[in-house]
């Protein structure tokens, strides 16, 4: 196993955990997710909240199964890129909030790049 490949199991576990937890939250508490759906998107925000929740749960499942792990990595990359506009919307919405909340919102923007790097690592190394 190459040194890069040896990190894939930890990265996979982290992504599965993150995506599964976030996916569940989209159904348990949808309102915060609704609030960051960019208003330019057509249709109700709740559709996007539930749709992204399904996508997160499905992607977590793909990553959890060794046979579909690389496909899961590719799906995670696509998902993280697709939801980036919601993170931008959150930063915009929270621009006048207290500094702690602004730090959270702005901190999510570069974190998305870290998530993409992790999902690409899993896609390449399974």
Mean pLDDT: 95
Largest sheet report: none
Q: Shape from CA axes? A: globular
**Whole-Å distance between the termini?**
11 Å
Number of helices: 7
User: What class would the helix/strand composition place it in?
Assistant: mainly alpha
Number of strands: 0
Strand fraction equals under 5%
Unreliable stretches: none
Order of helices and strands: HHHHHHH
Share in helix: over 70%
Which helices and strands, and how do they pair?
Layout: H1 3-6, H2 8-28, H3 31-34, H4 45-64, H5 69-82, H6 84-93, H7 99-125
Could you characterize the architecture of this molecule?
Residues 12-84 form the Methylamine utilisation protein MauE domain. It is found in: Membrane. This is Methylamine utilisation protein MauE domain-containing protein. This protein is mainly α and 126 residues long. The chain has one domain (3-125). It contains seven helices and no strands. It has helices at 3-6, 8-28, 31-34, 45-64, 69-82, 84-93, 99-125. Helix 2 (8-28) packs antiparallel against helix 4 (45-64), helix 5 packs antiparallel against helix 7 and helix 6 (84-93) runs antiparallel to helix 7 (99-125). The longest helix is centred in the C-terminal third of the chain and has 27 residues, at 99-125.
């Amino acid at each position: 196993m190459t040194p890069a490949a040896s990190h894939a199991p930890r990265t996979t576990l982290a992504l599965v955990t993150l995506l599964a937890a976030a996916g569940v939250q989209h159904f348990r508490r949808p309102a915060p997710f609704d609030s960051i759906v960019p208003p330019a998107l057509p249709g109700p925000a709740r559709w996007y909240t539930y749709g992204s929740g399904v996508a997160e749960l499905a992607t977590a499942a793909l990553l959890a199964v060794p046979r579909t792990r690389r496909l899961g990595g590719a799906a995670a990359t696509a998902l993280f890129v697709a939801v980036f506009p919601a993170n931008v919307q959150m930063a915009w919405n929270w621009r006048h909030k207290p500094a702690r909340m602004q730090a959270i919102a702005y901190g999510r923007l570069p974190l998305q790049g870290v998530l993409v790097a992790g999902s690409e690592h899993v896609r390449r190394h399974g």
